[in-house]
């Protein structure tokens, strides 16, 4: 028979875990309402979150859950010979009519920008588990999962010594794949960085590559779901030039939200430049509110 003191301690521990659910179940994402609908559209972009609380009015028979993965940072340069390649853009995946229990917790991962030198699966964005819905992070090498999946754009290749760096790949989106960043090269009067790849089947622009007199541009943020949520273009590549600086034209441009990859960097006289930063992933939930007993399958367009 359980001793009274032990019973009290167990009850106290259970109460503490109930009051602080993040300790027991991981940090839950605070969902942002993009549209009150119908259909209702919610977003999660918290890279520290490990769960979402399924909305109380979730309809497992009329929904879609969309994931954009994080991109990959552009490769940094090493003077005088290493010219950087662009990073790989984040992928996209959607799962239609995902069955979730209203009010329950569902496991998630929101991808974080991937390293160029040592990529990991932390760039992937997934829901429930990696075999239910997974958008592939730039450079992660994971297998995509979902009803429909698209790949992010590849990184542009670097030119030769004293030439331009490659542009970052664009993120994939609900309309299609991300485009690859352009290769770096040279032109009369100096080197030129490759342009960043467009995102979401060419609907979102990448950044222009640097020239001998202009800096690489960042990618353009996507707006497919709202003014603040979409798949981002890749950053432009840097341009090597012995008379300027990393800030002026050697550094790579940054990718854009969400999932755009960074452009590669080119070396300048006596200096190593940093590749452009990639952007994180995100999660979008779209559904028609309804009771759990509704049994007529439907797919939100």
3D architecture notes:
- By secondary structure, the chain is mainly β.
- Helix content is 9%, strand content 17%.
- It has three helices and 13 strands, in the order ααββββββββββββαβ.
- The chain has helices at residues 4-19, 21-25, 246-250, and strands at residues 28-29, 32-35, 40-44, 51-53, 63-68, 92-96, 105-109, 125-127, 133-135, 148-150, 185-187, 190-192, 282-287.
- The chain has a six-stranded antiparallel beta sheet, with no helix packed on it. Strands 1-4-7-8-9 form a five-stranded mixed beta sheet.
- A hairpin with a 2-residue loop joins strand 11 and strand 12 (190-192).
- The longest helix has 16 residues, at 4-19.
- Mean pLDDT is 89; it is low at 4-25 and 292-297.
Please write out the topology.
Elements lengths: L3 H16 L1 H5 L2 E2 L2 E4 L4 E5 L6 E3 L9 E6 L23 E5 L8 E5 L15 E3 L5 E3 L12 E3 L34 E3 L2 E3 L53 H5 L31 E6 L14
Parallel strand pairs: 1-4
Antiparallel strand pairs: 2-3, 3-13, 4-7, 5-6, 5-13, 6-10, 7-8, 8-9, 11-12
Short overview:
This protein is 9% helix and 17% strand. It has 301 residues and is mainly β.
Label this structure with key terms.
elongated; 301 residues; mainly beta
Terminal residue distance: 58 Å
User: Helix/strand-derived class?
Assistant: mainly beta
In terms of DSSP E residues, the strand content is 15-25%
Identify the strand order in the major beta sheet. Answer: 2-3-13-5-6-10
Helix content: under 10%
Order of helices and strands: HHEEEEEEEEEEEEHE
Number of strands: 13
Q: Over the alpha carbons, how many angstroms does the gyration radius reach?
A: 22 Å
Largest sheet: 6 strands, antiparallel
Low-confidence stretches: 4-25, 292-297
Number of helices: 3
**Rough shape?**
elongated
């Amino acid at each position: 028979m359980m001793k009274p003191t032990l019973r009290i301690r167990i009850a106290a521990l259970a109460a503490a875990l109930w009051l602080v659910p993040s300790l027991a179940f991981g940090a839950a994402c605070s969902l942002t309402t993009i549209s009150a609908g119908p259909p209702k559209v919610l977003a999660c972009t918290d890279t520290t979150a490990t769960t979402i609380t399924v909305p109380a009015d979730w309809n497992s028979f009329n929904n879609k859950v969309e994931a954009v993965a994080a991109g990959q940072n552009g490769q940094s340069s090493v003077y005088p010979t290493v010219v950087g390649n662009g990073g790989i853009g984040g992928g996209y995946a959607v799962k239609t009519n995902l069955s979730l229990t209203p009010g329950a917790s569902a496991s998630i991962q929101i991808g974080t920008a991937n390293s160029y030198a040592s990529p990991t699966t932390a760039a992937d964005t997934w829901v429930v588990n990696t075999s239910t819905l997974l958008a592939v992070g730039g450079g992660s090498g994971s297998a995509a999962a979902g009803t429909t999946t698209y790949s992010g754009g590849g990184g542009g290749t670097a030119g030769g010594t004293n030439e331009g760096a490659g542009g970052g790949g664009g993120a994939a989106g609900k309309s299609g794949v991300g485009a690859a960043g352009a290769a770096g090269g040279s032109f009369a009067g100096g080197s030129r960085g490759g342009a960043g790849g467009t995102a979401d089947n060419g609907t979102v622009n990448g950044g222009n590559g640097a020239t001998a007199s202009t800096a690489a541009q960042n990618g353009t943020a996507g707006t497919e779901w709202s003014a603040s949520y979409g798949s981002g273009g890749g950053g432009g590549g840097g341009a090597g030039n012995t008379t300027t600086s990393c800030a002026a034209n050697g550094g790579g441009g940054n990718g854009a939200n969400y999932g755009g990859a960074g452009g590669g960097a080119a070396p300048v006289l006596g200096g190593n430049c940093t590749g452009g930063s990639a952007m994180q992933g995100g999660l979008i939930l779209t559904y028609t509110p309804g009771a759990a007993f509704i049994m007529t399958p439907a797919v939100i367009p």
